[in-house]
Amino acid sequence: MSTDLTPLFAPAGVVVIGASRQSGKLGAAMARSLAAFPGARALVNAHRPDPAAGVYASVAQAAAHTDGRLDLAVLCVPAAGSADALAEAAAAGCRAALVCAGGFGEAGPEGEAHADALRRVARETGIRLLGPNTSGFFAPHLGLTASFVPAAGQLPAGDIAVVAASGGVNHALSFDLAAAGNGISIGAGIGAGLDVTAADVLEHLAEDGRTSAVALHLETVPDGPRLVAAVRRVAAVKPVVALVVGRTDVGDFARSHTGALATSWRTTRAALRQAGAVVVDDEREMVDALTALSRIQLRPHKEPGLAIVTAQAGPGLLLADRAGTDGIRMPQLAEATQQTLAGLLPPLTYQRNPVDTGRPAETFARVLEATAADPDVDLLAVYALTEPDSVDLASAAQAAGLGADAPAVVVVGGLPEDVAEQRARLHKAGIPALTGPASAANAVRALVTHARQRACGTDVSAPTAAAPVPPGPLDENAAKSFLAELGIRTPVRVACENGADAHYALRLLEGPVAVKVLDAAILHKTEIGGVHLGVRTPEELDAALDAIGPVRRYLVEAMAPPGVDLVLGVRRDPVFGPVVLAGLGGTAAEALADVAIRLAPLTAAEAASMPDDLAARALLDGWRGGPVLDRDEFGQVVSALAAALAASPDTAEIEINPLRLTAVGLIALDAVIVPTAAPAQDR
User: Fold this and answer.
1) Do residues 218 and 330 share a domain?
2) Tell me, what DSSP letter sits at residue 498?
């Protein structure tokens, strides 16, 4: 099957199968939408052919009477007839097809049979198929609107591509982008994705010179590794902004903390970030991010510096407040910069960053230029109302040299018609213009995130190698012995076959101990009363053993020093393969869902950045005199654990919970290794 999607998105000619004269029919809507296409066009209706009117009984007849090659077939027939129509189109020389109809996999066994028939034709003929269950696609620069939404034909041509799981979202995002002053290169709704998937379209867009940035909307991921590879390929040459649906769909919780936390939504977002995409929370943020990233990008930088210049203090404060919330660095301007600003602005204005100009005057352009030129400023955010008698914002921004060489986002406030005029001029100059402080903050966050990701994408070291997990099942003692072989610190402990062994261990360890049930089949020992801490005396030990049960094996180990508890796990995700999860330990992990996720294998340097994703990261940096996490040690632990899973095809999951951060470093207090076959059960 060809990987070239040019016949789909840039065909020499298009044929509509199922064209209709009834205005309400899909075939009529498609024929109208495609009427503006300047290439070869043909209509087919096997039931009501009218050659005199250009409507033929078959694709072969249409091709014979059409000047130009018919590359693309648009199928406007019911699900039951789609496979036959697709086969007919392929036999007549079509190399791509769009199927808009529903009634396939979503319609039960009969619909799934129709879907299988479509797949079979596509596989046997090599024709590429977009859909079904989609409202189509469009390529405005070609005058190609293969959509039954009439307004899609009015979308302006531009350099932002939209790849959406839903045809409706494809149209909605494209209209929102256009309303924000952007144009579209390609807008594609994947629909059911029986053949052409989001990954296919992304690979096409990586080589598309008309596209400078990509919007990616996802609902499900059929092939995680392929999607990640496609995103990584595109993100290497142009920004990808991704929106993932499914925040509230956590599905059936797995038995471990790691499985419960690594939901498909969370894992998909983490995978996309790791591949280089800027991940956003909603469609508004996506539009703002693309408005900026399609025009300017920051140099790779782990902590870009933001400066704000505002002609109105209140909106500037909103911008600064949001930047602080987003963790964006706002450096104090250099002394030389402040001296320059002091000569341009009234003495009572704030000039250290943010720069409050007061009502803008003729010096506004020079203020922008001086602030943008500060050695610690990588990005400038500007706010001003439209006041023609005071300053022309678009002219001032251009005079200051803002744009690709001096990256800036500009917010223009005022009446819609005034704002539209200023925005058009700013966009023409390559300066992204936004509609309010919140939108500007979205754009700033996207630009900074993109710069950080590019700065972190330079690690070329090889992932850690590790020995495979020993054949199991493994109880906690055996699991910790394996961790020790990986270089991960564990408490001193004794595995005990009976109560007498446990009393010997208490005397040997000389101090408070933890007493645990030792059984590979039990994952959550605390929940069944299988863990007793701080045991000091023989009497306390007997009470603990009685509570656990006399027929059990026991683990007696030295109590660990106090610290901050984390959870660290590696598991095989059904979509993306091996993944790593780190977060707060214990029940707090599931309650707060404050976790960092990465695809495995990964290098120690990549792993060392995971704690920075956590909202609770301050707890790891000496909070109130507590221990400080050695990021290098953490990276080594994570990469070793990930490498062990990669080397162990019979292992489904390895989890350390808690992994305690102490004054002497990280200590694995509990460990579970779950085989892929015969999963363990709580008991």
Assistant:
1) no
2) S
DSSP structure string for 227-294? HHHHHHHHHTTS-EEEEE--TT---SPPSSHHHHH--HHHHHHHHHHHHT-EEESSHHHHHHHHHHHT
**What percentage of the chain has pLDDT greater than the value 70?**
94
Mean pLDDT across 352-368 = 93
- Find the distance separating the first CA and the last CA of the chain, reported in whole Å: 51
Cβ contacts of 120 within 8 Å, gap of 6 or more: 83
Residue 24 CA: distances (Å) to CA of 19, 148, 168, 534: 11, 10, 19, 76
Q: Strand, coil or helix: what is 472?
A: coil
Q: Whole-prediction pTM value?
A: 0.92
Who has greater pLDDT, 150 or 80?
A: 80
- Number of separate domains in the chain: 4
Return the DSSP state at 254.
P
Q: Look up residue 104 and give its two tokens.
A: 């396939």
Q: Determine the 3-state secondary structure of 277 from DSSP.
A: coil
Token pair in block for residue 317: 């404060």
**C-alpha span between 364 and 345 (Å, rounded):** 9
Q: In sequence order, what are the residues at sequence separation of 6 or more whose Cβ sits closer than 8 angstroms to the Cβ of residue 154? A: none
C-beta separation of 579 from 610 below 8 A: no
Containing 235, the helix (H) or strand (E) segment is helix 224-235
Tokens of 523: 């994952």
Residue type present at position 640: A
Question: Which range marks the domain in which residue 380 is found?
Answer: 295-456
Which among 267, 292, 317 is the end of a domain?
Answer: 292
Q: Are strands 128-130 and 55-56 parallel, antiparallel or unpaired?
A: unpaired
pLDDT at residue 160, rounded to an integer: 98
**Cβ neighbourhood burial of 450 (10 Å; 0-12, 13-18, 19+):** buried
Q: Of all residues in the chain, what percent are helix, strand and coil, respectively (each to 5)?
A: 40, 20, 40
Angle formed at CA 51 by CA 48 and CA 52, multiple of 5 degrees: 115
Residue 471 located in a structural domain:
no
**What's 430's domain CATH number?**
3.40.50.261
Distance CA 195, CA 147 (A): 19
